[in-house]
Amino acid sequence: xxxxxxxxxxxxxxxxxxxEEYVNGELIKQKVISIGIHLKDLDITIPHPLTNFxxxxxxxxxxxxxxxxxxxxxxxxxxxxxxxxxxxxxxEFTPLLxxxxxxxxxxxxxxxxxxxxxxxxxxxxxxxxxxxxxKDFYLFLTKHSLLKEKYDFSPFLDGExxxxxxxxxxDLGTKYPSKKHNNNKPMKLKNFGPNxxxxxxxxxxxxxxxxxxxxxxxxxxxxxxxxxGEVVNLTRAELNVKVRNSxxxxxxxxxxxxxxxxxxxxxxxxxRLNYLDVSMAKQMILDSDLLWDYYxxxxxxLQIKIKNNFIKDPNIxxxxxxxxxxxGKVLERRFKKVKxxxxxxxxxxxxxxxxxxxxxxSFWSTHIGRGMFTExxxxxxxxxxxxxxxxxxxxxxxxxxxxxxxxxxxxxNELINELSETPINKFGTIDxxxxxxxxxNGVSQRVRKSR
Length: 451
Fold this sequence. Notes:
A three-stranded antiparallel sheet has the order 1-2-3, with helices on both faces. Strands 6-7-8 form a three-stranded antiparallel sheet. Strands 4-5 form a two-stranded antiparallel sheet. The two termini are about 45 Å apart. It has about 450 residues and is mainly α. The longest helix has 23 residues, at about 65-85. Helix 4 runs antiparallel to helix 5 (about 125-145). The radius of gyration is 26 Å and the shape is elongated. About 45% of the residues lie in helices and about 10% in strands. A hairpin with a 2-residue loop joins strand 1 (about 10-25) and strand 2.
């Protein structure tokens, strides 16, 4: 069986550049976008003739750069999907390695739309957004006789306007997000998707700009899986710190000390103490240079606030605008401010459309940090039971929600037995060898500050 892994060195990539041309005798500079083949090992991008699709359909028709950017990125993602399918030796795609673009059929476009629906779980209007550019692309290829298969798209067109889709064909079996699902509340997001690590750093850096007082709190959620109530109940005494070496926290219910002023402390509840004894409720935090930078900045800020008498209680770890312990509702409000700025930045950053749609069209709050932590644990190489232990869960039910296609549960009873036989003092910890080999010397390298 032939190995197609060499193809992973190639990817289609849009490239923006500036051109100069004379218009009515005047030299005009303008930015344009082209489609290229990026050679990863050499880090160079070679222009591809498909750039003509962007030029004839958008740039030559007077579209602004922003209007050309979206179809460029969409088509590059589609072509990169094809490369990926060839690499995994999908029988429907491997012939394209030899036939090239001419072998492209509606089936390939259909499979991509289905992938966006079932694997990427994008919302209905987002899938239609991608489909619109795919229809334009196939029409362009047909008009220029670049496909071996002959297609008549006239039944789907009224002049130059699409009135239907050639991909909506029962023979193709294209899957779209259901109307019912998308008319209800948005799907709950478990993590930031394929570019999770980059987006975690982006989000934390945005927090540093917008609400620096919660930046370290978010680190504890992303790298320790702490729930909102567990975070706001922390005091400085609950931190077990060996700076630039290890960090863990003791989970406590400090509501009687920190939140006496509040009539209702349901937002500050500590769920873990419902099933773990207080002496056993600990959580190991995945440490990295980024985590320690945020920790040190936070502790310096606390010292200044205490010295200036803004914070009266020196044991407070997270504070509100009055210098008192931050409540769960305040943490949530400040998280939403960061989220708003984060979404706006993604929306206005070229090439981040995929990331933007994933995080924009789903519901997520501070609890997503626990989902990120769970995904990281799987990436480190922990099995389902080890992930549950590392999260401080005495049940597998919550972890199974995250398993998806990452793991197949063959014998759930064996796993439950294994979890039940785990010493209670192991909960909230991670196997030392896996931690050192797969996190410290592996996955943690993907979490670095960019500013």
